[in-house]
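Two proteins were folded this term; both appear here.
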Amino acid sequence: MGVDVITKYFPNLTAKQLEQFAQLEALYSEWNEKINVISRKDIGNLYEHHVLHSLGIAKALNFRAGTTVVDVGTGGGFPGIPLAILFPDVQFHLVDSIGKKIRVAEEIRKTLGLTNCTTEQSRMEDVKGKYHFVVSRAAMPMSDLVKLVRKNIGREAINSLPNGIFTLKGGDLQAELAPYRKDVTVYQLSDWFEEEFFETKQLVYLPL
């Protein structure tokens, strides 16, 4: 399944965005041969399992121009790079502690010409910046993530949802989210995307 799975759900892309999304397959295939950032078995499902999955965040919130977002544990650039393509007026900062992974994200960012995206090899504990939102793909349990990023959430809110965390997860989250049940919102990705892959996939939003 190629880039058409993206245009199916995001039909209003510009020619430039279409071109950037279309480049991802060759770029990730090439880099994955050198540095394994996506399971070799899964590289053929790049658009569905990685790009569209990342864009689930955009179905919950249409980030306003000028929003700042930090991607914690970005790996090879998910969800940050697909979101940076979709939101050219939003600033994304991609962070990972593993040098070779962040190198892939940086090289792909440069090739795509994503001027609204920066990368940093760092542990999140050491990142000092303030952001409207933190995004992540199942990097760690919610309680660990909250402890790690609370210091990075800025006060000034400019979006229709309060500043906070968006994290993509799967499986039974009841116990993990129990401490936050008054505040947390869980979106089922299957409400937005009909592919079987999304049946067990969720997006968790927690205002901080």
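Next, the second protein.
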Amino acid sequence: MSKGFVTQGRLARMATVVIISLVLFYLPSALTILREGVARQWVLISVVMSTVYTAMFCLNYFVLVPMSLKQTDGKFSYFIINTLVILVVCALVVWWFNSMGDLCPPNPKRPNMPPPDHPEGIMHYVKFVMRDGIMMVLSAALGYAVKIGEERENLRRRELEISAEQRKMELTSLKAQLNPHFLFNSLNSIYALIGLDPVMAQEALHNLSRMLRFMIYDSDSAFVPLDKDAVFIGDYVRLMKLRLPASAEVSYSSPEFISPTLQVAPLVFLTLVENAFKHAAPDSSGEYYIRVALSIEEGRTLRFSVINSVSAPAVREIDSSPKSSSSIEDGKRIGLENVSRQLGLLYPGSHVFDIYEGDNYFSACIEIEMKALEDKNQKM
């Protein structure tokens, strides 16, 4: 969906909310206007207070509630701000009534009401302020309830989309990783190593079994510990390295310690690594490399980057037919679009996904705020 349609839909929802609030809070004013014998000044008072109620509703719906949802102590600040706003508005109402007496005549039901400095007059203002204060509290509560209900519905819809997207990604990854062709090539590489380097063959077999265990058991969850996902990527890189020529430089780095409280969607980084091994080739200078790195930048951002060498454009035109080149590029593009869509569902507003393709290299980088990873751990 394009940004234009998203913006139009958001503006339409905002306009609908404002119109409904206007109708809801101005309806009593309309009924007052239709009554016979009502002074023009009381109509003005009713309209002004209806405007105040509408403003309180919109302030909560559009500003205070979204702000409280983004902060850790949001509920406390939300109640404090609402309380201050209501007290200030009530004080302004009393000041307006006292300073604009010509616009606010005595109540027609009580023509002989005592002056404001009389105890009965003071009680009249107290009752009036209490009534308006309660109405403002109800307006704020209505804005809170409507916005929270909308956020919960959005969260439920997003969870359904995430679940469907993850199932799709898992099926794609399972087909790519657990199909007989992959297992046959991996076992064949390990078999060839047995005679050359039994220790390395044993380590490769251990990596393969650990990968299968992760794919079958751990990746079935919505989120997995980041340290386990990091180990899986390392096993994959080391296993795929066996299928490359000895001249290829393959490296993988990750933090020595990753907090077990950090959780990430399983296999979300795997597509980038798969693309690197699938499309890497010696560049124009003969360098052949794949570099995968997982790091935590300043304790705030998780950064996963993959960079690999590619053949020069002229070499690609000679070695690849237009059909096969188009097929490869389409496969790469679809895989990267899936990653971008999944990140948008999982970490909206909390991630950056950058892709850059040069003449001799291709790089992809995912950055996710640590807070988003911790929040996922707490919510799921």
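Strands lie at 224-225, 249-253, 263-264, 289-297, 301-309, 351-357, 361-369. The longest helix spans residues 119-177. These notes refer to the second protein only.
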